[in-house]
Each structure stands twice: as structure tokens, then as C-alpha cells.
Write a structure and sequence with these properties.
Strand content: 35-45%
Number of strands: 21
Order of helices and strands: EEEEHEEHEEHEEEEHEEEEEEEEE
Distance between the termini: 46 Å
Number of domains: 2
Helix content: 10-25%
Largest sheet: 5 strands, mixed
Strand order of the largest sheet: 1-10-9-5-6
Length: 270
């Protein structure tokens, strides 16, 4: 299981996360003394069975309306209709729809239509942990854990500072930082499209699709005709260029049901 950490400047509680034999245990202590601590356990295999998708992202969140309980949300379908290109982003400090910034590579930024953005905007939910599933019903060991830490910003007052940690089978983790979950998801699980880069007009060529992580491949093409719109790993598709002319370009796009166009291949008609 891969583990990453993503920064968040302010969290309302400190959290201690433990994963033992695929069971996630969460203990959260609120900064506010009038709120009861949260303690929950979740079987990750059951969460994957209930919520996973191909190229999926499941979030464990808290909301002001459910102060004593953390709730799971499947975000892949949730964000499908509102994704924009990765070169647009906004600051993570709840400026949704108000502040657009074109420096997505900067640490501490979230892209528009990211899971965190839409969860906050639509449900007033703040994620503390993500469970990324490469394929629907995948094994727990094949999933990726991304948990929220805190940006060590010296400008944050001491009364708002919190601590967060995660142990895996009793070992304290020091995972690498993930600057942006949305940008990670856009490049995650690429699909290889092998075949000629140039085709003569009115000919048919084969293209081999490789997706080693599983999950059904969804296909679309800008010109010409593919013999199938869905495929599996190591399956070939036929591109028919009848009716096209020399100089035209064809773009084959390969992705997943709720995350299309992860990979592309450009073909020139000669």
C-alpha cells in the first residue's frame, strides 16, 4: 500500500490514524474543548467493496452537521462533470469560485474541481483522508492512502495548530508530500496506446492498449472509426480511416468511466 500526505493549513482537530490488518482506526481530538473526541474503525476491504470505482477516489470527511462522526464519500462520480484543465487552480482556503490562480504547481494549492473543493462547496465536508482505488473491487494492498497533515506555516496561531500521524502495522509513517491531489489524479494510471503514428488514408490499423492496473478502458476518437468503445488490458482496437484525407489528424483518447482521456495518441493521415 502506497501512502502520501497532503498539507492543509488549518484542521479543527488532531488525528491519530492506525492501519492494522486492513482495518483503519481513527482517533480525533477537537481543538475546541466542548466537543467530544471521535473514535471510529473501518474495514478498508468493506469500504472498497462499497464505494470503489476504476480510477476511484473515496474521501473520509467531517462536516459541521455530523460533529461526532466521520463519513465516507465517493468523489469520482461527484467531480466528473466539473473538472477543468490542470493549468487552472485556486487557493485552498475556501475561496471556491472567487479566486483563480494560474500557478497549480505551487505547494498548498488545490485545482478547481478537485475532490476537496467540491466536497466543501456542495456538502460543507472537509476530507481528512483519501482512499484511491485503481480498479473497482481492488485489493486493499493495491489502494493508495492520502491523509491530510498540516502546513507548518509559522503564521498560524498556536491555538489553531494540530498534529496528525499515521501508523501502518505499528510503524509510524513519514510519507512523501503530494502537492495536489487533483494533479496526481490527472496523471495517475496512464494507458499505453501502441501503434503507428501515421496511417494512409482509407486504411485500417491496429492499436494495442495496455493498462496494468486493471479497470475497463473507455475509448473515444476525434476522426475515423474505432471498432470498440471499451476495451481491456492487452486488447487491440482497429482504427478505420476511410473517408479521411491526407493531412488530417486523429486523436485516440483512452481513460476510465468517470475519468476519461487519461492518455492520448495523435495519428497523422498521410
Amino acid at each position: 500500500m502506497e501512502i502520501y500526505q497532503i498539507n492543509r493549513k488549518i484542521m479543527p482537530f488532531s488525528s491519530f490514524l492506525q492501519i492494522e490488518k486492513n482495518v483503519l482506526k481513527i482517533d480525533a481530538a477537537w481543538k475546541s474543548s466542548d466537543k467530544k473526541p471521535i473514535s471510529q474503525s473501518h474495514d478498508l476491504a468493506e469500504i472498497i467493496d462499497q464505494y470503489s470505482e476504476d480510477h476511484g477516489c473515496i474521501a473520509l470527511c467531517y462536516t459541521p452537521r455530523s460533529k461526532n462522526e466521520l463519513i465516507w464519500h465517493e468523489t469520482t462520480r461527484f467531480t466528473y462533470g466539473e473538472r477543468i484543465s490542470s493549468d487552472r487552480s485556486y487557493t485552498s482556503m475556501m475561496q471556491i469560485g472567487l479566486s483563480i490562480n494560474d500557478t497549480p504547481q505551487k505547494l498548498g494549492r488545490h485545482n478547481a474541481a478537485s475532490p476537496a473543493a467540491l466536497l466543501k462547496q456542495r456538502l460543507d465536508a472537509t476530507p481528512i483522508l483519501y482512499l484511491l482505488t485503481p480498479a473497482r473491487g481492488c485489493a486493499v494492498d493495491d489502494a493508495i492512502i492520502v491523509f491530510h497533515g498540516v502546513d507548518p506555516d509559522p503564521g498560524i496561531p498556536e491555538e489553531f495548530r494540530t498534529t496528525h500521524s499515521l501508523t501502518l502495522d505499528g510503524n509510524l509513517q513519514a510519507p512523501p508530500m503530494m502537492p495536489s491531489l487533483k494533479m496526481f489524479l490527472e496523471k495517475w494510471l496512464p494507458i499505453t496506446i501502441n501503434g503507428p503514428d501515421a496511417i494512409r488514408a482509407d486504411q485500417t490499423e491496429k492499436y494495442l492498449l495496455t493498462n496494468t492496473h486493471g479497470g475497463q478502458i473507455y475509448l473515444e476518437v476525434t476522426s475515423g472509426i474505432l471498432n470498440r468503445s471499451r476495451a481491456k488490458n492487452k486488447q487491440q482496437v482497429l482504427l478505420d480511416t476511410r473517408g479521411l484525407e491526407a493531412g488530417e489528424e486523429v486523436l485516440i483518447k483512452a481513460g476510465y468511466k468517470f475519468w476519461p482521456g487519461i492518455s492520448q495518441k495523435k495519428i497523422v493521415i498521410v
